[in-house]
């Protein structure tokens, strides 16, 4: 049976596995909140390890999980999801009894299922997902990435562990939303993974439309296809692990078919359908964008 330990919102030492954009930003955010926290990093890239040590972002860094983790009561997996799954076992094996292991992966059901198999008994695993990020690696990491952002924390874990992971992210300035892994994946399939696939499909379709379409493409298409820029291991690997994605794609396809039907039916039907869509967008992002901004 796991032994519950008293862990402050920003425990020290803290283990951060992976110093890319998310891990590097997390380490910087922790240091900004409390310089006294000692950060132990696991990072395979020697140049990144050297930079993080030189800049005082971490106190120690190694290429692989090591005995240094025996002092860490809190560890965060911040690698791309494929390697994240592979690290669940090796990292948890080195953590002390009663430690918490958490992550930043974007598809929670599969990670939690892997954790049940791989995380050693005595270590509490709590799935979490910061709903912000990007790409650019350690060089793009910044201390304020967590501030004002939203972090989903999965309740499919012991309550005491969920409380501590929630407190950790809140201490860095994030809004914490608690949910079940299944509900998380359904929601994120619609608001994150499906937009990525739609942007990718639109980029390929626009390219295949020919030279004139590419020449006439403006900021509207640029904005719509921005997510297609994500590297596969950052967003594609996550999207393909989300079992809720096909259901959400079917839902979007039905709405697209309804809009096309309305446009073909009459001006009144087209207006009603597209006005509904405009109001839906305003409900998603109230008062953020006063006008379309000239996109085409």
What do you see in this structure?
Helices cover 50% and strands 12% of the residues. With 296 residues, it is an alpha/beta fold. The chain has two domains: 14-179, NAD(P)-binding Rossmann-like Domain (Rossmann fold, 3-Layer(aba) Sandwich); 184-284, 6-phosphogluconate dehydrogenase C-terminal like domain (6-phosphogluconate dehydrogenase C-terminal fold). It is elongated, with a radius of gyration of 21 Å. The relative contact order is 0.11.
Helical content stands at 40-55%
Strand order in the largest sheet? 3-2-1-4-5-6
- Say how many strands there are: 9
What number of domains? 2
Give the count of helical stretches. 11
* CATH homologous group name of the largest domain: NAD(P)-binding Rossmann-like Domain
Q: Supply the CATH class of the largest domain.
A: Alpha Beta
Radius of gyration: 21 Å
What features would you highlight for this structure?
6-stranded parallel sheet, 12% strand
Summarize the structure.
This protein is 50% helix and 12% strand. With 296 residues, the chain is an alpha/beta fold. The protein has 2 domains: 166 residues, 3-Layer(aba) Sandwich (Rossmann fold), CATH 3.40.50; 101 residues, 6-phosphogluconate dehydrogenase C-terminal fold (Orthogonal Bundle).
